[in-house]
């Protein structure tokens, strides 16, 4: 099976006043059609920069130093702006953490949705939709995200709607171009747990119904576990472990993955003690030599400080980058 | 290890063992001529040495309850009793004296510290306001506080932006325990932090409670964290208390439909096979 999206040995630097941030350090990921990949990691691990780079909306000064990204056999790094317009929001679209920030408070939801349809038609060089066609398509999109009264919602301004509703609208907008790939960057982080559960259900339903391919980024392992078939764990700009969700969560092989899971309080557990990972995340201007996790790692030895561990296969669809992977 | 400068009193129990109790607590906000009952007839009681959790989603009124019991905002109705004294009836000097025994830690450590003040002056402030301690004795206290929260003494000379989120939250906790309070109100103390740092802070709070004989009122939307740290729990929704009881009974046998829905909404992880 050919991959819909493949990222090979991707390195990204961001120059700053204090020096160059080595934000992504050799990322390898591949994603098949219809698959849902979760990318989990803590703040500053590079997961959002990676997601935005897929869509060509990374930080302006960011420089790719090596590696490449291919989507649907197109080299994403070599596209010009006109080519990007036919892909961004159309073939690949994205939803974000805080839906309010991405909606215009001065326009009704219906107007904003219909603007998206107009923009897509223009970018693809198709004839503009009539007013009736746009209205019909808006209703259809809102029904697709399980909004029961599309007429009322279209007439509403964003502030009149709840957070969960706003996120549904952003998802509807993201679906407007019938994308192949949806990137969801912390889509449930700003929401209450009951609403989070509804949005995760909706995403699962869309994957099932539309055959959507999804990259979901989150610091919330629980949200990722609820939706992703495969998980990539990122730490300090490196994918440290990747595999089937169940394998990663029940048998983590990288010490960081294991530390992350042991730090999570369990809603069903007793008062077991939490294990914190000592230390703090490294400064990416001067990242640690060798394995970037070594200063915080309980298993680190001399080789960890000198040699960057290669991604090694340790099971069916399970890879880990560690000199001393757990058994 | 009990630090020599922190000597918590143990003789704080009132007759029923509760250190803080509130009855019929109500807060009505008026905006644009419309009334909004943020907190509606809430009663609670925290036993000395216990951790009482308040859980609820955004808008449930849980943070308003925290601010009310601290008297940071005035209740519309209701009575708050702290260590046998009626807090709602006090004002001025009397209230100021009582306040040193109850402290609060907020959600966002990045906005709780003045960016232009060093950590030293952040930690000195409670002493300058509430005590006559100055000079060498004050320095000794500040060093001891940094020691309690396991940060190096050299951190005194730093500014908040030079610290990580977890370190800032430790400073906020150090400042809150500076005057040896009996009650600590923790309003979403780990919500702005990453999970590995959250684990550090929670473990630290649990140790600190034992060491300083503290009572916590712990407010959070994170049910797993509440289950982990609290002895008793109150579930709030739309300003009202829906359910309360021991953490074990509320989580294992929720009586209220909303509580059940809340608990069921939390995504479950498969168990580690270790």
Distance between the termini of chain B: 33 Å
State the strand order across the main sheet of chain B: 6-7-8-3-9-10
As laid out across the biggest beta sheet of chain A, the strand order is 6-7-8-3-9-10-12-11
Rounded to an integer, what's the Rg of chain B over CA atoms?
A: 19 Å
- Order of helix and strand elements from N to C terminus of chain A: EEEHEEHEHHHHEHEHEEHHHEE
- DSSP strand tally of chain B: 10
Q: Pairing-aware structural class of the strands and helices of chain B?
A: alpha/beta
Structure characterization notes:
- The complex is a heterodimer of chains A (about 325) and B (about 270).
- Chain A is of the alpha/beta class.
- Chain A is built from eleven helices and twelve strands.
- Chain A has helices spanning about 45-55, 80-85, 110-125, 130-145, 150-155, 165-175, 195-210, 220-225, 245-250, 255-260, 300-305, and strands spanning about 5-15, 20-30, 35-40, 65-70, 75, 90-95, 180-185, 215-220, 230-235, 240-245, 310-315, 320.
- In chain A, the strands form two sheets. An eight-stranded mixed beta sheet of chain A has the order 6-7-8-3-9-10-12-11, sandwiched between helices.
- In chain A, α6 packs parallel to α7.
- The two termini of chain A are about 30 Å apart.
- The mean pLDDT of chain A is about 95.
- By secondary structure, chain B is an alpha/beta fold.
- Chain B contains ten helices and ten strands.
- In chain B, the strands form two sheets. In chain B, strands 6-7-8-3-9-10 form a six-stranded mixed beta sheet, with helices on both faces. Chain B has a four-stranded antiparallel beta sheet with strand order 2-1-4-5.
- In chain B, α4 (about 120-130) packs across α5 (about 135-150), α4 (about 120-130) packs parallel to α6 (about 165-175) and α6 runs parallel beside α7 (about 195-210).
- The longest helix of chain B has 18 residues, at about 195-210.
- The two termini of chain B are about 35 Å apart.
- The chains are: A alpha/beta (about 325), B alpha/beta (about 270).
- Chains A and B meet through α7, α8, α9 and α10 of A and α7, α8 and α10 of B.
């Amino acid at each position: 099976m050919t991959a819909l999206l493949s990222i090979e040995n991707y390195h990204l630097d961001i120059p700053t006043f204090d020096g160059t941030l080595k934000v992504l350090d050799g990322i390898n990921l591949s994603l098949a059609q219809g698959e849902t990949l979760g990318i989990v990691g803590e703040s500053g691990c590079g997961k959002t920069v990676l997601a935005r780079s897929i869509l060509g909306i990374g930080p302006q000064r960011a420089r790719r130093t090596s590696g490449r990204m291919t989507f649907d056999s197109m080299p994403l790094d070599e596209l010009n702006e006109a080519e990007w317009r036919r892909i961004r929001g159309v073939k690949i679209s994205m939803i974000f953490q805080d839906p309010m920030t991405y909606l215009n408070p001065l326009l009704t939801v219906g107007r904003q949705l219909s603007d998206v349809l107009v923009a897509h038609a223009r970018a693809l060089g198709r004839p503009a939709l009539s007013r009736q066609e746009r209205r019909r398509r808006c209703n259809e999109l809102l029904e697709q995200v399980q909004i029961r009264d599309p007429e009322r919602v279209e007439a509403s301004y964003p502030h009149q709607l709840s957070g969960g509703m706003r996120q549904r609208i952003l998802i509807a907008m993201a679906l407007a171009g019938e994308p192949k790939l949806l990137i969801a960057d912390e889509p449930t982080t700003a929401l209450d747990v009951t609403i989070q559960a509804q949005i995760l259900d909706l995403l699962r339903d869309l994957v099932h119904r539309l055959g959507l391919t999804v990259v979901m980024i989150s610091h919330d392992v629980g949200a990722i576990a609820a939706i992703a078939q495969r998980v990539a764990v990122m730490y300090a700009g490196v994918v440290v472990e990747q595999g089937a969700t169940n394998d990663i969560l029940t048998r983590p092989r990288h010490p960081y993955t294991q530390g992350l899971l042991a730090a999570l309080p369990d809603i069903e557990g007793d008062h077991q003690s939490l294990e914190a990972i000592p230390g703090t995340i490294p400064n990416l201007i001067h990242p640690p030599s060798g394995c970037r996790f070594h200063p915080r790692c309980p298993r680190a030895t001399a080789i960890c400080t000198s040699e960057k561990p290669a991604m090694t296969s340790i099971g069916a669809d399970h890879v880990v980058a560690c000199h001393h992977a757990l058994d | 290890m009990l630090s020599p400068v922190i000597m918590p009193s143990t003789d704080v129990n009132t007759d029923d063992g509760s250190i803080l109790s509130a009855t019929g607590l109500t807060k009505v906000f008026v905006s644009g001529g419309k009334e909004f009952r943020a907190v509606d007839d809430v009663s609670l009681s925290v036993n000395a040495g216990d951790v009482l959790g308040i859980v609820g989603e955004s808008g449930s009124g849980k943070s308003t309850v925290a601010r009310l019991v601290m008297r940071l905002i005035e209740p519309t109705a209701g009575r708050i009793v702290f260590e046998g004294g009626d807090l709602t009836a006090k004002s001025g000097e009397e209230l100021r004296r009582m306040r040193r025994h109850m402290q609060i830690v907020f959600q966002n450590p990045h906005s709780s510290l003045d960016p232009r003040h060093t950590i030293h002056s952040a930690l000195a402030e409670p002493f300058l306001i509430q005590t006559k301690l100055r000079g060498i004795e004050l320095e000794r206290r500040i060093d001891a506080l940094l020691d309690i929260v396991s940060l190096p003494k050299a951190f005194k000379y730093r500014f908040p932006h030079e610290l990580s989120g977890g370190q800032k939250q430790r400073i906020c906790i150090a400042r809150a325990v500076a005057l040896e309070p009996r009650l600590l109100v923790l309003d979403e103390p780990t919500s702005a932090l990453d999970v590995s740092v959250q684990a550090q802070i929670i473990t630290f709070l649990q140790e600190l409670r034992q060491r300083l004989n503290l009572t916590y009122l712990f407010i959070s939307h994170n049910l797993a964290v509440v289950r982990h740290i609290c002895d008793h729990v109150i579930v709030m929704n739309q300003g009202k208390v829906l359910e309360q009881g021991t953490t074990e009974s509320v989580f294992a046998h929720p009586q209220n439909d909303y509580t059940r829905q809340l608990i069921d909404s939390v995504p479950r992880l498969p168990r580690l096979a270790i």
